Amino acid sequence: MNGGAIEVPDRVAVADMNEDRTAMAEVVELGRQAGGPDAWTGYFANHARTFRMAARLFPAAHVRLVSGVYAFCRFTDDLVDEPGQGATESRVQARLRAWKELAARSFQGETVGVPILDEVLGEASCRGVSWDYPAALLEGMSMDLTLTRYPDWDTLERYTFCVAGSVGGWLTQLFGLLDSALLQRAHALGRGMQLTNIVRDVGEDWTRGRVYVPESLLASHGLEADDVGRLLDAPRPLPSAWVAVVESMMAAADARYRQAWPGIRRLPGHFRRPVAAATAAYRGIHREVRRNGHDNLARRAHTNRLTKLVLAAGGLLRARL
After folding, report:
1. In degrees to the nearest 10, what's the CA dihedral of 257, 300, 288, 275?
2. Which among 198, 128, 141, 200 has a CA at the least distance from the CA of 169?
3. Higher confidence at residue 83 or residue 8?
4. Alpha carbon distance 261, 101 (integer Å)
5. What number is the average pLDDT over the span 147-175?
6. Is the per-residue pLDDT at 1 higher than 80?
7. Which pLDDT belongs to residue 80?
8. Which of 167, 189, 240, 281 has the fewest CB atoms inside 10 Å of its own CB, making it the most exposed?
9. How far apart are CA 244 and CA 255, in angstroms?
């Protein structure tokens, strides 16, 4: 008989394990509800009209690949931003851990029973996509749970790479393009688009408790993160300090777009055309922000269908020059 002390599991550790098991079951069920390839194009229709328009320029055989990557990104984002009623921060973190574990297993060739993982991650692995890209995306979603303020540009640069630059690299490798210089330009394009997203959604992000505009940039114009809430209800027009902040953010995005364009022109035609169209249409949001008086707090800038088409046509022309 062993006379040694019997180890009693720590109650907190047991609770954590139970929560992880529950989270695993939840994300498997949610993932199955997301459906298979026939459902993934719906993510474009519901969340990304610009990308949906651009995706139509892909050959039919490639639409499934692109919509699958977008669906994975969107689903992962929704685990964080739309967790459902009653979901605590701890539960959301557990779901994200479970999703990352399933994604890694699927990437390694294991069938986990969730089409959005088995098909999207499995195909990514087979086509030579680096695991670094899905892992970075998952890191970015984790940052949204733990980081509500961004002290400087370096921190924001890490975030924009994780949630968008990584997607540019993922898609580039998915189509068999492995040149490192081209991948750097793909990262830049994703970062530019994410900066445009941030500019467009400042007010919406504030309601979620987040301010992505770097505090160092705000401070350089005499502002701080909490001023976002104050300016939300302030009289219009907005002060020149805020206008300067917004213009600085858009200038940073434009710099990434300029860095990306030489890479866009190097892409094969079936990939170049939709990327060029999406890039030009997305950058057009900046013009709408200016038309709104730089009010990205109470108003959400968007381009209508005709404007998107005109901008996309300009992008197609630019890609041929």
Report:
1. 30
2. 128
3. 83
4. 36
5. 97
6. no
7. 84
8. 240
9. 16
Give the position of tokens 């002060």. Answer: 239
Please tell me the distance from the alpha carbon of residue 53 to that of residue 48, in angstroms, as a whole number.
9
* CA atoms within a 13 Å half-sphere pointing along the CA-CB vector of 317: 7
Q: Express each pLDDT in 226-265 by its tens digit.
A: 999 999 999 999 999 999 999 999 999 999 999 999 999 9
Q: At what angle do helices 269-291 and 180-200 cross, to 10 degrees?
A: 30
Neighbours of 11 (CB within 10 A): 8
For 36-71, the DSSP string reads: SHHHHHHHHHHH-HHHHHHHTTS-HHHHHHHHHHHH
Q: Which long-range contacts (CB under 8 A, 24 or more apart) does 152-161 make?
A: 152/214, 152/215, 152/216, 153/214, 153/216, 153/217, 153/252, 155/214, 156/212, 156/214, 157/191, 159/194, 159/212, 160/190, 160/191, 160/194, 160/195, 161/136, 161/187, 161/190, 161/191
Q: Which of 36-45, 67-76, 140-149 has the lowest mean pLDDT?
A: 36-45
Structure token digits, residue 176 = 């068999």
Place of tokens 């990584």: 166
Q: How far is CA 39 from CA 43, 45, 84, in A?
A: 8, 11, 21
Q: What is the pLDDT of residues 197-223, one digit of tens each?
A: 999 999 999 999 999 999 999 999 999
The larger pLDDT score, comparing residue 239 to residue 22, is at 239
DSSP per position, 119-183: THHHHHHHTT--THHHHHHHHHHHHHHH-SB--SHHHHHHHHIIIIIHHHHHHHHHTT---HHHH
CB 145 within 8 A of CB 89: yes
